[in-house]
Amino acid sequence: MLNCARCHSGVSSSRATGGRRRLDRVFASLALGALVWALVNCLAPADAFAQRRSSARQQPDITPKMVQNAISGGVDYLKSLQNRRGNWNEEEIHVGGISSLCTLALLSAGETPDDPHVARALEYLRSVDPTSGPVESTYVAALQTMVFCMAEPKRDAGLIRRNVLWLQNTQKTEIKVGAWGYPYGNGDPSNSQFALLALYEADRLGLSIDPKVWRNASVYWSNTQNIDGSWTYNYLPPSVGQQAPGSGSMTCAGIVSLLIAGEKSELADALIRNGEFLPCQRQNTEISRRLNHAQKWMAKHFSVSRNPGNKDWVLYYLYGLERMGRMTEQRFIGGHDWYREGVAELLRLSKTAERRDRVLVYWKGASSSEMMEPIATSLALLFLSKGRYPVLLTKVQFTQETEDWNNHRHDIHNLARYTEDAWKKYVTTQNVDLETATTEDLLLSPVLFFSGTQSPLPKDAAQRKAFGKKLRDYVDRGGFILAEAAAPGGSFERGFRELLREIFPEKEHRLYPMPPEHPIWRAEKTIQPRFMRPIYCMDYGCRTCVVFVTSDPKKPRPSLSCLWELAPEARPSAPHNEIVKDEIRAGLSLGLNILAYATDRTLKTKEESFLAQQAETPADSPVQRGRLAIANLQHGGGCEAAPKALRNLLLKASDALHTKSGVLAETVSIASDRIFDFPILFMQGRYDFRLTRAERVQLRAYLDRGGLLFVNSICASPAFDAAFRREMAEICPDASLRAIPLDDPLYTNALGGFDLRGIRTRRAESGTTAQPIQLEGALINDRWGVIYSSWDLSCALEDFNSMNCRGYSTDDAAKIGVNVILYAFY
Known about the structure:
The protein is α/β, with parallel strands linked by helices.
């Protein structure tokens, strides 16, 4: 137990007296005051910006736990209704339909094929043939195909191929050409969208789909679009009679279906001709115009509490809304955060039932079919689960005057699909308008992607400064910027370099050629020398935060966005030679490596952005009784290179020690007498530095009075390490740094902290090693007055475990910090 008589903040001339005052003041209690931004991404038009902000403020408080509980409760509910055969009760005319829908919902919610309930469902579905006999059904064949593609595609390859062939053969060739429908019907948009979704998933697995299927589908959806841009279930051409009003559910179906059909039937925005890559071949087609028209209708009629234009089928509409928002890469529709608002509505509509030690969650729709709880609950789960896919990267719209920011419309989408296959996790991508986006919008995505041929720098000086400030705030909070010129020539490179100077006016932050040893060259897949290209990077604090891909005029290569756009052309069946395909694969691999480095393969799901902002202690508050206060020392070696490290340490310490008082992290000058108000001084850096004689004298006086100096070298920087050792030799010639033995109380839980003796260090690119903790110290008055880690703690405390940053994991760095805090008051 700690001696609570030692509770006071500040350092006096007597260590014992100062220690008692210090602990009395500081360890009365500690607080968890974590600040978490409510992150939102933006693709709202400028005139919807104010509406979006108002909408966000009006949303009820939703926590990640509420969303996760709803999903897990819904999963348990569906499992509780499953029959022993593995099926769910369903109609005879669609045998296997409800069972496929429930299984798809379970898989989308994170259940795996080896889960007993899912395994039984899969076995049952394998016994159902929806392509022949009395159970022939487009709905069932489509849903079953999506299940097999998601669960065990290799095992069920034959069944997937059977369904795909049947769906291709049953597409209507007369009357409603390009549609699907009931066996003896003329076709309808609901059957048609499910058929296309199934074929799209099969196509992703590499199955060959007849090109005329995509072309005919695009004709059907183009021909059935209302004049106002919407779709309806019962379409009438204007020449026949008055058109039925469009509905939200069918308009979402139309947008997604036309998007899929257009992607598969139209030329890409880059071409390959005689083995030569031709970038920026933007296809402005009739399909693009129709999609824009439809999205404007959705923006105008957006709702989550009703199916626009139709009083029924709300949950069916929400399932379509999720798909439309995700596949069109929008965070906002008509100024509305569609996922957040949809979650709020589904939580409001949810019902619960007690079952032994579990709380089951289910939904009940308003329409006759949705009244069946398995259908309603499955549709709700599909919205909640698939809509929460984490954002992998976001393409930046840096101009509203042209489409130059989006020369290759499918580039990041294709890269995301490639990343999903590599990481075995579902992700999504988004576009964001930099002019209307806030920093919080940007922070939903770990990577921002700039691509174009013309300068991304605004002509207006005020707008340039606004872009610079917004992007600096994004990088300060852990964001990563990737940029490239989409094609040779143009002014993009010059403009982007000028934009960087707006973001980083400091002289020390400049682009430099990426060295061969940088982890990006081999983070996931080793880039062969013949595929390397000029890349410049910029380091900020703990990490490389900007990567700029350029072109060598002597050896021009296609841009990364061009290669990502052409990803489908690297398939084995594509009619290109291996030289072309290898170039595309290398571009995808380099993109994957950049994403792995920028994210450390750790992504946050969307509901994690719902955390309400917690109150913080103001940074300029004076040291007060009951508050844990540590100062960050100013010096010229990068003392602010990891600006959140100390604050995060204090918050993690408060959490670990289960205390509820305030914390204070403040940067102070070494020469200031303010340092004597703090029991612990925190020192971090990455560069060479020198202290003045007055600063050395002041720091020695602080140590002699009983203060503790806690130091770490950011990313194990050799320059800072050498400078700190040199300064310590000047400050404490009688107390040189030495290894702290592993049996020291600092390493144990004897002080109420953690046993650190099993901690291992991280090394660049090699992950965790068996190397034990390495701390050094200087003994002042028979105690460790200086505790130094030559391995990184700061970047870990900022929750950035970079591949080229030698040090400790985030959790281990926090444990080390907690033990140092406890030691200071022992």
